[in-house]
Specification:
By secondary structure, the chain is α/β, with parallel strands linked by helices. It has 9 helices and 14 strands. The protein is 42% helix and 19% strand. The strands form 4 sheets. A 6-stranded parallel beta sheet has the order 3-2-1-4-5-6, with helices on both faces. Helix 1 crosses helix 8 and helix 4 crosses helix 9. The relative contact order is 0.14. It binds nicotinamide-adenine-dinucleotide (NAD). Nicotinamide-adenine-dinucleotide binds next to helix 1 and helix 3. Keywords: NAD, Oxidoreductase.
Length: 308
């Protein structure tokens, strides 16, 4: 099983570290326009193979011809992130060029691998990727609001002082300021929120405050640490694992809409073949309104930076 990793900066290198311990891939090919960086990361990761905890797999820095027999490609390639950027959409102008280049180079050698986009703004980049050439759309997806969903569960769990894994909750819409936490469908160990609060006698949660936090926390990490990479790497690697194992997971991911006008994050059934089914779930009035705003924001970003 072969993984291609395009972009080996902060996020890509953390993905490489995590994926090395998954014991899922026998071959990993790293591609970055900064070839020196790619070589250095590969060498550093190879050295971990002198230890018993690390499987002896092949990790190489290479080019697109090495991806001809790849099973999955993860794209984190991006222009440099300005720490003072107001929003991820500030990366759009530069990353349209990056994603176009990446898609053309992949398409020149293969149409087999599933392609997972992480590069921001990830919804718009996923859409652009479907427009560049005739690469099969169902094989192209973005991590979407998978990361926000983990953050949402963590924020809720911290409030109640419980394990985030006991919280069943997800976020849809845009990866960014128009992320939509779906409060109307969240449960804790199967209990709707009201029932959980009554039975646990825990203090009521401030939904508005948590909703505000879902996107803001990423900037807290960004401003304090300088980048985000740990949670997004884990998010991506878990997704890749579920794809490769054909787990038929339903996850909040970004893919192109049925009418082909944009890409947005919704609960999505994914298999080893890629996007299988997108669930246009029922929402309450406020969530519906927020979801429409998310779509309008992504559409505006696409229309501003991309001419069909
Ligand atoms: N989707 C999410 O939830 C999420 C979370 C965190 C970060 N991100 C995004 O992931 C991207 C990467 O973040 P990072 O912190 O690793 O950035 P980074 O600047 O550290 O790394 C980007 C890498 O891409 C390489 N690159 C640029 N153009 C390329 C090309 N055409 N082909 C191959 N490689 C190329 C650069 O040389 C660099 O090594 C950013 O767009 C960031 O906003 C997304």
């Amino acid at each position: 099983m072969k993984l291609g990793l395009i972009g080996i900066g902060k996020v890509g290198s953390q993905i490489l570290t995590d994926v090395q311990y998954l014991n899922l891939f026998s071959d990993i090919v790293v591609v970055d326009t900064n070839e020196k960086l790619a070589r250095g990361e590969v060498l550093d990761h190879q050295h971990a193979q002198g230890l018993t905890s690390t499987s002896h797999i092949r990790i190489v820095s290479g080019d697109y011809t090495d991806l001809v027999d790849a099973d999955v490609i993860v794209v984190t390639a991006s222009i440099a992130t300005d720490p003072n950027m107001p929003d991820r959409t500030a990366l759009t102008k530069g990353n349209v060029g990056v994603v176009t280049d990446v898609m053309n180079r992949i398409n020149a050698v293969t149409q087999q691998p599933l392609i997972v986009f992480v590069s921001n703004p990830v919804d718009t980049m996923t859409y652009i990727a479907t427009q560049v050439n005739d690469y099969p759309n169902e094989k192209i997806m973005g991590t979407g609001t998978l990361l926000e969903s983990a953050r949402f569960r963590t924020l809720i769990a911290h409030h109640y002082d419980i394990d985030p894994k006991s919280v069943e909750a997800f976020v849809i819409g845009e990866h960014g300021q128009h992320a939509v936490p779906v409060w109307s469908k969240m449960t804790i160990a199967g209990m709707p929120l009201d029932e959980f609060e009554t039975l646990s006698q825990k203090a009521a949660i401030d939904r508005e405050a948590i909703t505000q936090q879902v996107d803001k926390v990423s900037f807290d990490v960004f401003h304090d640490k300088g980048w985000t990479n740990v949670a997004i790497a884990k998010t991506t690697v878990e997704l890749v694992k579920r794809l490769v194992f054909n787990e038929k997971a339903i996850l909040p991911l970004t893919s192109i809409t049925a009418d082909g006008s944009l890409a947005v994050s919704l609960p999505t059934l994914v298999t080893r073949q890629g996007v299988n089914h997108v669930f246009n779930i029922t929402l309450d009035a406020a969530e519906r309104d927020q979801f429409e705003q998310a779509k309008a924001y992504i559409q505006q970003t696409i229309d501003t930076h991309f001419k069909k």
